Amino acid sequence: MGTITFDPAKRDYLLAVLRDLGGAAVAFSGGIDSTVVAKAAFLALGNRAVAVTADSASVARTELDDARRLAALIGIRHVVVRTDEFSNPAYLKNDGARCYHCKTELYTTVERLLPELGVPFMVSGANLDDLGDYRPGLVAAAEHAVRHPLQEAGFTKADVRALALHWELPTWDKPAAPCLSSRMAPGVAVTPERTKRVEDAEAFLRTLGLRECRVRYHDGDLARVEVPLGDVARLACDPVRSELARVLHALGFKFVTLDLDGFRSGSLNELVPLELKVQFKTKRETQ
Questions:
Q1: Angle between helices 32-45 and 157-166 (to 10 degrees)
Q2: Which of 14, 38, 119, 248 lies at 20 to 30 Å from 164 by C-alpha?
Q3: How crowded is the C-beta side of 228, counted as CA atoms within 13 Å?
Q4: What CA–CA distance (Å, rounded) separates 183 from 210?
Q5: Integer Cα distance of 41 and 47 in angstroms
Q6: Domains, the chain, ranges and CATH?
Q7: What is the pLDDT along the chain (287 residues), one digit of tens a residue?
């Protein structure tokens, strides 16, 4: 993970950015980035800050439980809203723009709630490192005037972890946990049955002591299991191999494969058509 260096000047800048908003609804997944923003918002704004967590078939139950516990730990107001992205055919199609449609649904839902919540702005946990990745959700954020305090205050992912550790937040070293729908390869339709299948498969992998793991869902009900390189050999050998295959077949996967390149975040982005990447990159640059 590298050296963790806390920068008090960046912390103070982050608090000032949020204080100047006068009130904010934090899009709160319970991941490290949104947890740091929620903590900062609570410190800067008190009861004028509220954490809003989306609940749908794409959210693992463990992640929703973690979000509730973290919000209570921080002390921030917490609201769980039901989002309905699964009723959107463009989302279900999963052509590479799924995240855009998901974030559009989230931000539209929260935007409608702002008067009831009594706050004027929505904020996200996006940091500077997110600008270098394929993030169509940032286009949706711009369309809904969502602010990104971590980016405004100059925070990289390493800065976020350092501040989380300084604040003694239990998520300071938490691996990224994107939504379950992100496990579907572009072109594989998103369904609640498939996200549940992935959720249960990854829950089994965690019983093997794995913190970072992904079960990528490919066409033909094929599971591509990604684990850190140091764990690949262990999963390839019996009795772990046979038990892994048995469990995933029982969940409904017809084929179970182990990726020899190991775990890497966002590997399915390699399958997003280049023209779609260019389209969203252009939108971000012109917003």
A1: 60
A2: 119
A3: 9
A4: 17
A5: 9
A6: 8-166 (3.40.50.620), 180-265 (3.30.300)
A7: 556 789 999 999 999 999 999 999 999 999 999 999 999 999 999 999 999 999 999 999 999 999 999 999 999 999 999 999 999 999 999 998 999 999 999 999 999 999 999 999 999 999 999 887 778 889 999 999 999 999 999 999 999 999 999 999 998 888 888 899 999 999 999 999 999 999 999 999 999 999 999 999 999 999 999 999 999 999 999 999 999 999 999 999 999 999 999 999 878 777 766 666 566 566 666 66
Q: CB neighbours of 142 closer than 8 A, spacing ≥ 6?
A: 283, 284, 287
Tokens of 97: 């723009």
The CA distances from residue 61 to 29, 72, 107, 180, 216, in Å, are: 12, 17, 21, 11, 18
CA distances in angstroms from 193 to 102, 131, 154, 227, 266, listed in the order given:
18, 32, 40, 23, 22
How many other C-beta atoms can be found within 10 angstroms of the C-beta atom of residue 132?
A: 7
Specify burial of residue 50 (Cβ count, 10 A radius: 0-12, 13-18, 19+). buried
Task: Provide φ and ψ at 78, rounded to 5°.
Answer: -135, 130
